[in-house]
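FAQ: What does the model actually see?

It sees only this:
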Amino acid sequence: MLITRAAVAVFVAGLAFVAGAGPAAAGEFGVSLEGGYFGMTNASKSAKAIFGGSAGGFTGGGSIRYVFMRSAFVGVGAHYFTRDGERVFVADPTSTPFRLGHPLTIREIPVYGMIGWRFLPDSRLVPYVAFGLGATSLSEKSIVGGIEDPPSQSQSKFSSHFIAGVEFGRSVVRFGAEVMYTTVPDSIGLAGVSKIYGEKDVGGFTVVGKLVLVP
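And it is asked to produce this:
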C-alpha cells in the first residue's frame, strides 16, 4: 500500500538522518511516543452518525526530530487511528441517522514531515510550533451478513498539519503535550453519509501527551 511504503521510507530516512548527524553541540535529537485523542472535527456530522454520537477516539503514534540553530527543528511523525461504528442511512442533512446494524471500521494513518521553532530553548518548559506536509491513508471496512461488502476500500490523500506544543524537562527523559490540526481535502464526500452532509475532509484536531527520549 502506498502509505505503508511512504511511512517506511520516511522512518528509515529519519533514522539515517539521526545516525549521520554530528556531535551534540551541533544539535539535539529527540524520539517521542505519543498517545491521546483524535477528533474528526472537519467531518463531525458524518463521524458522529457512524460512531454513534462521538466524532473520534484514541490515537497513538510517534515522531523523530532534530533541533539545529538552538531553536529551529525538523522531523517526521505518524499517528494511527481506528474505530468501529455502523453503516447508517440519512435522508437529508436535517434527518436523524438510521443505524443499519452493519459494522463499519474506519482507519486513518497520517504520515508527515515537519519544520518548526522552539521558544525559550534554555528553559525547562519549552513551547514550540510547527508546520507539516504529508499523506493520510483512509480505509473503510464494512461487514454485511458476515461478508465484507464492498471489499475494503483505501486511499491516500495529501494532508497538511499545524502543530503547537510544550515540552518539559532537560534530561534524557522529558514529557510534553501537543495539539495538532490536520486538513485532508477531498478525502470524502462523493458518496454515502458524507455526501449528504457535504463534508469533504477527514481531518481534525489531535491532542496527545508525549514521552520524549533525548539521547
